[in-house]
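This is your field. Pick holes in the following sequence-structure pair:
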Amino acid sequence: MQQIFGILIVLGCVFGGFMLNGGTIGAIWHPLELLIIVGAGLGAIVLGNPRHVLNEMAIQLRKVVTTRHLGEEFQRQLMLLMFELLQTAARGLKALDEHVEAPAESPIFQRYPMILEEPKLIAFIVDNFRLMAMGKISGHELEGVLEQELEAIHDELLQPSKSLQKIGEAMPGFGILAAVLGIVMAMNSVNDGATAGDIAAQVAAAMVGTFIGIFMCYGVLDPLSNMMKQLVNKEVSTLECVKVVLCTHLSGKPALLSIDAGRRLVQLNIKPSFAQLESWINDMQSGSESDAAAAADTPRRRAADRSGANAANLQRQA
């Protein structure tokens, strides 16, 4: 909703102000100028980036457009997932094999669908639990490994926004390119006997290319690249939270304190309090105990029902 509101402000102020000044949309509507500028920018993006960067750019743009936010519910699921995994690891890291080998089929991961929708986060969690299960590694050693990994992940995920920002900075140049081509056509029309009015109209149309280039730079691509950069920072912050939880756990701290250490890295506007985190865990544990009690009580109820039925049959026969 916020993105739509921002787009309406930009379009309303730019084009609305132009129309209030006596201009018309038809005067600046030149599809061929738009084709030259946007096509040149798109071609430069394809030319200057490898395929994996283009794929990641498409993913990030889709996330920006769909405005999917990792809010409080996402943090709740992440904290509870890590708590359950640490509780399982306390019984022996080998107990995690069935969960980390196939997360999509794991009953633990299936309880947290929002986490399963984040493949990078799932891969980070699973890989590091595998690393912990392979052999003895201290919390300090794991922290050093994960810091380097997160730095590499951060740099790689920022490549799409950096590329989009560079193309945005080049859009005024593409606009000037389109304007020069329009001026060339206007000058050529002089040889064809064009009137001063026709030449003026062609020059005005050519100058629209400069406007489109500047507008695409500062009104479209620069805000998009900034939103993609903020999205990446949020995703890396989530990975940092997981890193702190794992390192704290390896240093010998209980599961609750390990989860709380990760909670402290959550973004301020969605950070849960310690009391809220504790209530989430208590609710989860009480629900698990209720399910276990119900499962254990089912055979007793069935036996009681059979005994009651047998007694009733004996009374009818008597």
Summary: The CA atoms of residues 48 and 98 lie 42 Å apart. The chain has two domains: 35-67+137-268, 69-135.
